[in-house]
Amino acid sequence: MKKIAPLGLGLALLGTLVPAAAAQAAPDPDPAVVVTAQGAVRGEAGPKVRSFQGIPYAAAARFAAPRPVPAWTGVRDATEPGKVCAQPAGYPIGKASTDEDCLNVNVTAPAGKRGRLPVIVFIHGGSMMFGMGDLYGPDRLAAGGAVVVSMNYRLGVTGFLTHPSLKESGGLALDDQRAALRWVRQNIGAFGGDPRNVTIMGESGGGFSVCGHLASPASAGLFQRAIVQSAPCGTPGGASRTRAEAIDDSETVIREVGCEDAADVAACLRAADIEKLLEEYGTKREPRPVSGTPSLPLPVDEALRTGRFNRVPVLIGVNHDEENGMVLGEELATGRPMAAEAYEPAVRRQFEAKADAVLKRYPLGASPGRTLAKVKTDATWSAPTLDTARTLSRWTPTRMYEFTEQDTPWYAGYPQPSFPAASQHMAELPYMFDLALFDRLTPAQAALGDRMIGAWVRFAATGDPNGGGEAAWPRLSDRRGQAGWHIQSLTRGAWKRAGFVEDHSYRFWSGAARR
Fold it and tell me: Which whole-number Å values give the CA distances from 63 to 102, 160, 247, in the listed order?
C-alpha cells in the first residue's frame, strides 16, 4: 500500500511547484519599460525600434559641473523629448530656450534584438551654440543594428562663459557630455547595448566635441571608437582655446549684464537673468572648451600631434562642398545671389596677403557664390580635414571619407538656390537621421543612406567599416606619402578612392598659403 504524504508536506511541495509553473507561463517583460540605476522609465515600443526620450543623466547648477541626478520612484514617462538647453533664437537647427535644467538623453534600440549591441552616442552640432539631440531622428540608424543615444548639453553662455571666480567654468559642454557617457556606461546594458563597445559620433560642433574627448584624459575608457564628421580639429585653435582666451571672450558679457564690478562676480552671474545672458552672448560666437585644465591639459591639436590622446579607431570625414550652404544662406538672407563684383573683395577680406595667389588659382566662374564657396571649402574644411586625418593616422587606426553625392535634399520649405547645394555642410545627416529640416529622401537617396548606415554601424561594431558588398576601404596611412592617403568617396555610385588632393588643391592650402 502506497504511503500518502502528510497534508502539510503536500501543500509545501505544491507551493514549490506553483511559482515555477507560473514563472514559465509569465509573459515577456514590457519592452517599453526599462529599469535604470536611477529608476524605471517607460518609452515606446514599435515594430522596428524602442525609443526612450528625455531621461535625465545629470543635474547642474548654473556654471557648475554636472552632478549625479537624484533617483526617482515609480515609472518615469520617457515618451517626449526633454527640455532644450538655453540658447537664442535664429537658427533652424536649434530652438529658442531659457531652460537650464536640461541635461537629458534619448535612447533608441532595435526592436526584438537580443544580446549586447554596439552603442553609438551622437553629439549634435550647432557651433556649440545651438541644437538639441531629439532633432536627429535615429530610427533608421538604430534599426541598422546599434543602440543610439543622443543628448542635450549646455551651450553658448551657460556652457562656456569663463571667469576666475567660476572655478568649474570654461568647458561645461564637454563635462556634460562626459557625464552622459558615464550614464551610458552605467545604464546602456538595460537597453540592450554593450557598455564596453561605445562609439562617440559628432558632426560639426559635435565633431569638435568628439575631438575634445579624444584629447581628454578624463574621457579615457568611456568610448572605444570615434566618428568625426565635418570637424577639422587638428589645426591650432580649431577645437579648444586657452583659459586666457576664454576669459577675454567673456569680459564683454560680464560687463553688459552688470557683474564686472560686483563684490562677488560669481554670485552676480548666477543670479543674472538668463535672457540677458543669452542676449549679451549673442549668436555669432563659436566657443570651444578650455585647455590647460586637468580634463583637457593640452590644446586638442597638440594632443593629436604628439600622440597624447585616447588612441581608439577613428572614422573622420568631410563633405565635398561644405561652404555651399553658408554662401547660399547669405543668398537666402539677402534675397539675391552674390554679385560678380563682390567676389574679389570677399577673397581679399579673408585671405589678405595671400589673396593674389588665391585669386589666381580660383578665377571667377559663372557663379560668383559657387566659386567663393569652393575657395572656402578647400581652405577651411578639405585641406584641414586631411591634415587632421594624417595626424591621427600616425598614432591610431584611421579611415577617412568624403561625402561627394551631388543630388542631395534641400532645406524643406525654402526657395530653390541659385546653384546646387550638393554636398554642403550637414548634407550627409539626412542620409542617416530623419530630419524634418530637409526635404524627404528620394528612393535613390534612401538607398545611399542605407549603405552609409551599414558602414557606420559596422565601424561601431568592429572598428572597420568594410563589408556590405562595398569596395575595399583601406586605412589612411601617412607613411607612404600621398599613395597612402586613401579617402573613400561616398556617393550613390560605386564607392572608390576620391581624387581629393587634386580636387581640393591640397598642396596649395597645406603650404604657406594657409599658414
Answer: 13, 8, 14
Q: Which residues of 398-432 are buried (b: 16+ CB within 10 A; e: fewer)?
A: bbbbbbbbeebbbbeeeeebebbbbbbbbbbbbbb
Confidence of residue 3 (pLDDT cuts 50, 70, 90): very low
pLDDT digits (tens, 9 = 90+) for 398-436: 999 999 999 999 999 999 999 999 999 999 999 999 999
Amino acid at residue number 145: G
Which residues partner with 411 through β-bridges? 438
Helix ranges (H only) for 86-161 are 139-143, 156-160
Which residues pair with residue 241 across a beta bridge?
290
* pTM beyond cutoff 0.85: yes
Q: Quote the crossing angle between the two packed helices 368-377 and 324-334, to the nearest 10°.
A: 140
How far is Cα 84 from Cα 131, in angstroms, rounded to an integer?
8
Q: For residue 295, with 0-12 CB atoms within 10 Å meaning exposed, 13-18 middle and 19 or more buried, which class applies?
A: buried
Of 498, 317, 326, nearest in space to 401 by CA = 317
Q: State the cell numbers at 290.
A: 578650455
Can you spell out the DSSP letters for 314-363?
EEEEEETTTTHHHHHHHHHHHTSPPPGGGHHHHHHHHHGGGHHHHHHHS-
Cα–Cα distance measured from residue 281 to residue 124, given in angstroms and rounded to the nearest whole number: 20
Rounded to whole angstroms, the Cα distance separating 119 from 194 reads: 6
